[in-house]
Amino acid sequence: MQVKELGHLVLYVRNLERSRGFYRDVLGWKE
Question: Is the pLDDT confidence value at 14 over 90?
Answer without folding.
Answer: yes
